[in-house]
Design a protein that fits this description.
Blueprint (H helix, E strand, L loop, with lengths): L1 H12 L3 E4 L9 H16 L3 E4 L13 H7 L12 H15 L5 H10 L4 H17 L6 H11 L9 H12 L3 H4 L6 H17 L4 H7 L5 H17 L1 H14 L3
Helix pairs in contact: 1-2, 4-5, 4-6, 5-7, 6-7, 8-10, 10-12, 11-12, 12-13
């Protein structure tokens, strides 16, 4: 047993780069932590690279020896957030190009707007869509993507994102998203912004404050006022009611 342990330690001490994912799982495992401590020290002293990932900062990891936590703090700590929309689009486009796949850009956008968690979920959604298309011999469309996301990644995508709502509303009125988020008080821009807020409140679980932040750093009172305005116009303006109906159809996941 000791020989196997020594072989294990010697192997890891001989490498140039050690990458460990989810290092927080070492919590509470005293013997494993002791072995890792000696491996870490050896690699560090020999100027080797050690890359660790965790779902929390070192200071928040419970059940980890203090001597290890102090060493975790020696290096550069980087907080990796969920990929932004532009990054998600770039990841999907690169994956599609590398695999030689042809998918309408509107579908790529829909997936990028809908999956906001991480790269694994993003690629998983793309694979599921391709499988659905191939197995059922169906053309890849937004309708197919909607059905796939609702059925196969239900735990990930429980609601339409605020970003996607803004895109659909702005595309409907042919207004750039950055203009919608601006401070302009032009009637058509204000109505576009109010509808984006209205549907965000109706179709997501985000707070009024969060919705306002996404719509040009507005406060929760502005969002509340927007929702009341939309409801009032829906009762008194037949054309505006048509806007609501059209946009709702575009947003509804069948």
């Amino acid at each position: 047993m000791d020989n196997k342990k020594n072989d294990f330690v010697h192997f890891y001490q001989s490498i140039d780069v050690l990458i460990i994912d989810d290092v927080q799982f070492l919590s509470g495992k005293e013997k494993t932590q002791d072995v890792f401590f000696h491996i870490f020290n050896h690699l560090h002293q020999n100027k080797k690279q050690v890359i660790l990932t965790s779902d929390k900062a070192p200071v928040d990891i419970i059940g980890m020896e203090q001597r290890l936590l102090s060493r975790f703090k020696w290096g550069l700590s980087a907080d990796l957030q969920s990929p932004e929309l532009e990054t998600r689009l770039a990841i999907l486009k690169k994956k599609i190009k590398n695999d030689g796949i042809e998918i309408p850009y509107s579908v790529v956008e829909y997936i990028a707007y809908s999956i906001t968690t991480n790269v694994r979920e993003l690629e998983g959604a793309l694979i599921s869509l391709l499988a659905q298309s191939s197995l059922n011999r169906k053309e890849i469309t937004i309708e197919l993507a909607k059905n796939m996301l609702d059925k196969f990644v239900k735990n990930t995508v429980r609601e339409v994102s605020i970003d996607y709502i803004q895109k659909v509303v702005c595309d409907y009125f042919d207004i750039p998203i950055d203009v919608m988020k601006s401070k302009t008080r032009k009637r058509e821009i204000v109505q576009c912004r109010q509808l984006a807020m209205f549907f965000a409140k109706q179709m997501t679980k985000n707070s009024l404050a969060m919705i306002g932040k996404h719509c040009g750093n507005k406060d929760h009172a502005t969002v509340l006022h927007a929702c009341k305005t939309v409801n009032n116009l829906a009762d008194t303006d037949k054309r505006f009611k048509g806007y609501i109906s059209d946009i709702e159809k575009r947003l509804t996941i069948s």
